[in-house]
Amino acid sequence: MLFWTLMFLCIAIVAGLLGFSGIAGAAAGIAKVIFFIFVVLLVISLISGALRGRAPKA
What we know:
By secondary structure, the chain is an all-alpha fold. It has helices at 2-18, 21-52. It has one domain. One of its GO terms (cellular component) is plasma membrane.
């Protein structure tokens, strides 16, 4: 999921540099949503791991 966030971020940056404001805005919005979903899943994973008593694997 983090891969897709970075891909949409790159698309937004390239589209913004080329002047495609609509595409850049849409790609940036999608990247933002996917990033926040990733962060929420990370927090849920950390909390569930802490409740189970396991140490995080490095």
